Amino acid sequence: FAAAERLFEQSLELARRAEDPQQIIAVLGDFGQAARMQNDPGRAVALYEERVTLSRELGDGRGVAWALCNLGMIAYAEGDPDIVVRVKQATTEVEEDDPYAAFKIPDDLMW
Known about the structure:
single chain; mainly alpha; about 70% helix; flat
């Protein structure tokens, strides 16, 4: 994973330098997935939360939805109610006319 992590970091740095927000969003999602698969939920959460923020700034409902989905999976797997609360609050901020507005964290996910 160390080699992949270095490549993700380089890719993210290049996307930031190029000021390419769509590429940054893509790398954040892939890097977050890799961190999650390597059992590094803290890192994955940070990457996904950054993706939520940037996706919102760009009006990218799909990016927000995917990041929230991944945050929800981490929260569920970790049994961390703090993450669940943050994700639940974030889903309430999705614009209702956004095609991904139907993506909400269900109330019964709250332990």
